[in-house]
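Researcher: We're teaching a course module on how sequence relates to structure. For the next exercise, students receive a sequence and then see the predicted structure as C-alpha cells, so they can try to spot secondary structure elements on their own. Here is the exercise chain.
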Amino acid sequence: MRRFFRSKKFIITSGVAVVLIAAVIAFSIFGSVAAPQSAFAGSVIAPIGEFFGNISEGVGDFFGTFSKYEDLQKENADLREQIADLTEEKLKWQEALTQNEFYKEFLGIKEDHEDFEMTSARVISRDTADPFCTFTVNAGSLDGVSLHDPVITAEGIIGYVYEIGPSYATVMTILNPALKMGAYDRRTDDNGVVSGDVSGAAEGFCRMDGLSRHSTVAKGDYAVTAGGGMFPAGLVIGRVDSVVQIEGEFSVYATITPAADIKGCSSVMIITSFNGQSDFEGLIED
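Model: And here is the predicted structure for the students to work with:
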C-alpha cells in the first residue's frame, strides 16, 4: 500500500486532481460571470470526479477486505487454540483409558492375592547397553517402594528393584544371571531354580536349573514362583520352551520364555508388601 502512495502515477494523478479541484472552486465563485466556462468545466470535472469517486470506493473496499482478513486471522487463531485444547483433552482421555485398562488387568491378580499391596510405575528409561534389559521406572521410596520389591506385569514377573531413589527405581529383570528365584512346574510340581542365562538373554530366554533327570517337565508347561523369599508364591514366570539334558550329569534344565514382555513393557506394578515378604539376600549374587 505504501508503494502505491509513493508511486509516480499516484503523484501525477493527485496533482491533476488538485488543479481541477482548484478550477472547479474558481468557476463556482465566478460562475455567474462566466456561465459558459462553468458548463465547460462541469463537463470536464464530472468524469474526473467520477474517477476519483471510484478510487475512493476501491480504497474503501481494500480496507474493508483488509479488516475482514484481520478478522479471519483472529478467528483462525481462536480455532487453533480450540484444536490444541481438544487435542490435550483427547490425550488425557486416552491416558485415562489406558490406565483404566492397565488396572483392570491386575484385578485378577489382586483377587487371587488379597495380601498384595501394589504401586503402579511407568518405564522412563532403559539401559540399551545391558543385554539383560535393565530399566528404570518413575516410582521410588517416596511412593512406598523399597529395595528388592518384586516387579510384575499382568502377564507375569519382570524382576525386582535393586536400586532406588526418592522418585525412581531401577529394575533387574529375570534375564539377569545374578537373579535367582525358587520355582516349580505348575503341571508336575517339579522344583528348580530360575535365573537368567548369558547365552539366552539376547533371545529373551531364562532357564530353570536343578530339575531331576526323571522329571516329567515338558515343553508348554508353565513355571511359577515357589515363594518363601523375595518373591511371593504363584507368580507366573514363563513357559517351558525346551528341556535339555546335561551330558554327564544327573540333572536337566529347562529353557523358559518369560510370560511378561520384558523388552517392551511400558508400565509395571511393584509389589510393595505381601504376606511372608522377606529380604532374602541369598537370592541375589554379587
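Model: If you want an answer key for the exercise: Residues 2-77 form one domain. The first helix runs from residue 2 to 6.
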